[in-house]
Amino acid sequence: MQDKANKYLHIMRWGSQTHVSYNEAACREAKKYLGYFALVSNCEKDPFECLRKYRKRETIESCFELFKQRADGTGVRVWDSNTLRGRMFVQFIALCYYEYLSNEILEMKDSLGVPNGDPKHDSAANIKLEKKLKAWLDNSPIYLVLQWFDTIESVKVSSKLSSKRWPTEVTARDKLFLDKLGVTLPH
Could you write out the DSSP letters of every residue in the chain? Predict the structure, then answer.
C-alpha cells in the first residue's frame, strides 16, 4: 500500500506538518490503462443497485460453470420442468459436498507431514506416510481422488462349504486419508 502512495502522491514532511500532492505524471500514465463501461437498463433506476445486480451475475455464471464441470451439467437430459428443478437441486447438493470435501482436503494438507508433539504421530514411519499422502493430494485433482475411491468395493464369495466377504485392497495411504476425513472402514 505504501508503494502505491509513494508512486501516485508526493508526500513532503516539515517537522510535524505534512503536505500531500498528486504525482500528475504517474496518475496520467495509470489512467491510460483504465477502462470505462456503461450499464443501460430500462428497469433499474438506481445506478448502485444496477451495479450490484450486474456484479452478482458473475457469481451465477461461476455457479453454472461449476455445474457443467463438476456436477454433470453439460447435458440436461430431462423432459419437464419439475424434473429439471430436481436435477438442478441434486447437482447443487453434489456441488456443495464437492466444495466441502475440497476445503477439508486443503485443511488436511496443511497438517500432513508436520510433527505435532504426539510421539505416535511424530514417528518417522507416520511422517513419511503423511508426506506421501500430501504428495499424492498435491498432484491429483479432486475428481481423480474421488474416482480413486470409487473402486473400493466389498466382495462376497459363497459356496456350499463357506461364505466369505472382504473389501478390495485399501493401501496404508488410503486408510490414512480416510481416517483424516473421519471415515471408518468396515472390518
Answer: -HHHHHHHEEEEEETTEEEEEE-HHHHHHHHTT--------SS---HHHHHHHHHHHHHHHHHHHHHHHHSS-S----SSHHHHHHHHHHHHHHHHHHHHHHHHHHHHHHHTT---S-TTTTSHHHHHHHHHHHHHHHHS-HHHHHHHHTT--EEEEE-SS-EEEEEPP--HHHHHHHHHHTPPPP-
Q: Report how far residue 131's alpha carbon sits from residue 104's, in angstroms, rounded to the nearest whole number.
A: 17
The pTM of the full predicted model, rounded to 2 decimals, is 0.52
Model pLDDT, residue 130: 92
10-residue mean pLDDT profile of the chain (187 residues): values are 80 84 85 76 79 76 73 70 83 80 87 88 90 92 80 71 72 87 77
53 CA to centre of own chain? 24
**pLDDT in the model for residue 43:** 79
- The identity of residue 70, as a single letter, is R
Distance CA 172, CA 140 (A): 17
* Sign of the dihedral through C-alpha 130, 177, 137, 149: positive
